[in-house]
Amino acid sequence: MNPKKKPTLSVFMPNYNHGRYLRESLGALVRQSYQPMEILVLDDASTDDSVAIIEEFAQQYSHIHLHRNEINRGVGPATAHLVEMAKGDYIFGTAADDKILPGFFQRYMDLLEEYPEAGLCACPTIEIDAAGKTTGLVPLYSPLKAPGYIPPGRCLKILYRHGVWVTGSAVIYRRAALMEAGGFRPELGPFCDGVVQQTLMLRYGACFIPEPLASWRNLPSGYLNSTYKDIDSFLDYLRNALDFIRESGSQLFPPSYLRKFDRRYRFSAGRYYLNSAASVSSSDREVFFEKILASLRSLRSLDAFFFSRSRPNLSTLRKVVAQLWLAARLGISPFWAFRRIGQKMARRKDTKRLVRDRPGYLIEDRHEVV
Questions:
Q1: What pLDDT shows up at residue 159?
Q2: Which of 107, 122, 156, 180 would you call most buried, defined as having the most Cβ atoms within 10 angstroms of its Cβ?
Q3: What local confidence, expressed as pLDDT, does residue 284 receive?
Q4: The pLDDT value given to residue 108
Q5: Residue 320: which domain range?
């Protein structure tokens, strides 16, 4: 009797000028107890020392394969090309500046083998800064208290109540399901992974491990943060995402959920702007929120009162008040908004406890491999 064939895993990594992080990110991959069948790295015409570092790793580890673009094509096309090249039954995409923690591949693949119907597997994510210092857990809802499977119907209920609970840096996908859902579409910009993640959740269900096994480097120059700053591009991508969902996945996404999808992402953009934007003029701030709220009834004087005076250097209380007003304007439940606003502080406490109880998860611990 032939033993059951074990599922295989492909890992892919697009890179552009992230040479300073590559030893850490690639080192974390090759130190995993479970090794993927291939690690595909696509350098998108970097001008730093990225290629030399990747070549060093490729010489030492035969399953690392370097591919190069002669001209920079952007992260969206690079990701789509890498997915097409991947051969594994499951695929994991990681940014060149992110890092997975010990046990990531083994824990994920064991759970996915137990629940082969799942479209993906995810876990909570630790947020780190440019220097690699832990700043907290990414403030997202944790749907399970023990590793397990969430069926599609329950996924929809959780999405309605809490929104998306996964980050792109902590997801392994079943490749056949991902391709059937359309893959990562470059025209969706920063929504390309979120749209396909929710499609897979509602079509196949998802696995979840309630323990942080991945880290996301939150950089001001990061893809999503850069898009938030350009509100016109952000809104164009959001419209593209909604149009794509309506055309390809309308049977999975109820219209009432699409309204939540639209308004929650607008809220996230406004919240990022209030908390992270550099000092800007009152007129620029008003223009930003006019675009966020363009489809709603005009309350210009009240909006100006809450937003134009909410400078980044004001107190946390003033920022919270402005965010609650934004939630009210968007028709978002104040309880959902307040949970969202407060989660970050709570997650920082959770991270301190995690680091105290599990010292092996300290992100500051560096490893030089090559």
A1: 93
A2: 122
A3: 66
A4: 98
A5: 223-357
Burial class (CB in 10 A: 0-12, 13-18, 19+), 368: exposed
Examine the domain organization and report whether 188 and 321 are in the same domain: no
C-alpha to C-alpha distance for 120 and 175, rounded to whole angstroms: 9
What sign has the CA pseudo-torsion 67, 71, 75, 81? negative
- 152 and 256 in a single domain? The answer is no
Q: What is the per-residue burial (b if ≥16 Cβ within 10 Å, else e) of 36-54?
A: bebbbbbbbebeeebbebb
Q: For position 347, what pLDDT does the model report?
A: 54
112 plus 143 within the same structural domain:
yes
- Residue 213: what pLDDT? 95
Residue whose token pair is 């966020």: 292
- Give me 120's structure tokens: 């993906």
Split into its structural domains, the chain has a count of 2
Q: Chain centroid to CA 129: how far?
A: 15
Please report whether residue 363 resides in a domain. no
Residue 4 lies in a domain: no
Residues of the chain scoring pLDDT < 70: 1-3, 220-225, 249-250, 276-285, 308-315, 334-370
pTM above 0.85, yes or no: yes
- Which burial class, exposed, middle or buried, applies to 80 when counting CB atoms under 10 A from its CB (0-12, 13-18, 19+)? middle
Q: Same domain, yes or no, for 157 and 116?
A: yes
